[in-house]
Amino acid sequence: MSMYIAKSRLSYIHTNIHRTQEIVCSQIQLFNMTPKILSKDICGRSWNTARCYILDPFVSLACRKTKSEVKLLGAWPSPFVMRARIALNIKSVSYEFLEETFQPKSPLLLDSNPVYKKVPVLINQDKPICESLIIVQYVDDVWSSGPSILPSEPYDRAIARFWATYLDDKWYPTLRSVRGAKGEDDRKKLITEVGEGLTLLEDALNKTSRGKDFFGGDQIGYLDIAFGCFLGWLRVTESLTGVKLLDQVKTPCLVKWAERFCAHGAVKDVMPQTEKLVEFAKMLMAKMAASTPN
Amino acid sequence: MGEVKLIGTHQSFPCARIEWGLKIKGVEYEYLKEDLSNKSDLLIESNPVHKKVPVLIHKGKPIAESLVILEYIDETWKDNNSHSLLPQDPYERALARFWAKFIDEKCVISVWGACVAQEGEEKEKAVEGAIETLSHLEKQIKGKKFFGGEKIGYLDIVAGWLSYWLSVLEELGEIELVNAERFPCLHEWGKNFINTSPIKDCIPPREDVLAYFSFGINYVRSMAPNKA
Known about the structure:
By secondary structure, chain A is mostly helical. Chain A contains 13 helices and 4 strands. Chain B is 53% helix and 7% strand.
């Protein structure tokens, strides 16, 4: 009943109180409403930047209820978790972030992802969705009124999905192996492979961006998210090996893209600091070395 | 005509997936048979990153990776035959993608591992692992005719190798994974799937699949380190 009241009150407020478009959009997201009714009011109306100081009580109660409907189970160092967070940020979705304990794995994680027992897991209205790229596509599908994450053309979508699969199946596993490489020759070989992959991605960026700032064009999209989440760990590998992987000479467009990506509003608060990641990586490596039998 | 080409080999089940998808949508295509021991310039140009089949070429533009191609087919020919491959509901769609990824990452690898493993403890463990991954699919298909519901969908196409290629692997590996006793629902689904048109129209001869897999298995076994 209160949801019904909240919706009609929201409509009343919308026509009677000036709000920034942002606040209204986030209210729409929270309600999972399509803005059909409200968009007629939005279009052509000149919005001033005045804030609404008093939230209608029914609306704010409904907001508080719907806020916890979206939860993300994750871990701060995980690039895969970052993908889900960026997608939710792009869509201005309010969600509760639950930092996973891991040792031991929480009952929530084991219940919501019994197959892999891994983060991220998005829980929307009690339904769990697993696997980062699947979560990103789900977020794009559900919150369809927000900016699009996947390109609109089927061919461009296929190219974005192809490169995202390449990143997960080939490139990132190679990057990870660099840290655990046995011997200098092995390390050099892996670093060369990482570099070759970056050359392919430089070429992909030039083709898909069509001269714009991101793989997705003017705005960050699916492939920006799929690749950009690895930038932190790429820098960790550079720091630990002393080798510059993202290189001004070989991959100049990727270097500029990386700066723009990390500075983006949907990214900057969820990209972990490289120093923290380096510490975390060293801790992991020490643990692995301690548990490896002689 | 001439607008859609598929580079593939009939014995390969990822290539069969694409044929099934195209036929279900009623899309006409030209099949360009690839000799994987002597890769064509067209394949290398169309898929320079992996140099693998299948590759779909539509209006001159190549798309690689079977799961990516299936989604492309579904989106491009979305009104054809009113037959959507992926579910309409976002959550159901996410689930279909999840299980498709699981099949390619876990099932294929565990089944192959069980098949290739040599007799002994290693093989027993590999067979147990394969059965465990397949048990997830048994749960998913329970109570349904197809993974897609009443009609064949994306997940049926991705899992389709279980209805035919699996039995060849079981024979070569001297193992039994899916049978009516252990996985009754999956077994029933397999029989329904392989006997439905247009699926049954693009099944390669069994001896070709046998030859294709034998070669692979013998190669892998020959590379395994000798055990003292």
